[in-house]
Amino acid sequence: MQQYSKYENKTCTISDSGHLFAINGNLQGISQLVRGQKIDDVIRRLDGIRCGIKNTSCPDQLCRALEQLKQAPLTGE
Q1: Could you say which of 3, 34, 46, 66 would form a disulfide bridge with 59 (CB–CB 3.0 to 4.6 Å)?
Q2: What is d(CA 7, CA 69) in angstroms, rounded to the nearest whole number?
Q3: Could you give the CA distance from residue 18 to residue 7 in angstroms, rounded to a whole number?
Q4: CB 12 within 8 A of CB 67
Q5: Looking at the predicted structure, is the pLDDT value of residue 3 above 60?
Q6: Could you read off the pLDDT of 13-38 as tens digits, one per residue?
Q7: How far apart, in Å, are the Cα atoms of 58 and each of 47, 73, 77?
Q8: Best CA proximity match to 1, nearest among 41, 56, 39
Q9: In sequence order, what are the beta bridge partners of 3?
């Protein structure tokens, strides 16, 4: 699954979120729920959610992407 997230650098607030190659309805719902939320709040709420017997889930993978995004150097400011 590939993911992308956009956030506002100054507030670390998610302004857009998308997932490619996953269940469309779930991802639309997740995207609507996390928009406008602080990255750390989203990670705290969704980290570790599992899908059935899998060790991860779409929400958990979003957390992984957000954690990587937090570590990425800020550009364009």
Answers
A1: 46
A2: 9
A3: 12
A4: no
A5: no
A6: 666 555 555 667 777 888 888 888 99
A7: 10, 25, 31
A8: 56
A9: 19
Single-letter code of the amino acid located at 49: I
Across 4-8, 35-39, 43-47, 57-61, least confident range: 4-8
For residue 1, the model assigns a pLDDT of 41
Query: What pLDDT, on the 0 to 100 scale, is given for residue 24?
Result: 72
Q: Where are the beta strands (DSSP E) in 1-77?
A: 2-8, 13-20
For residues 39 and 8, what is the distance between their CA atoms, to the nearest angstrom?
10
Size of the chain, expressed as the number of residues it contains: 77
CA distances from 26 to 23, 33, 60, 74 (A): 6, 11, 13, 29
Place of tokens 């190659």: 21
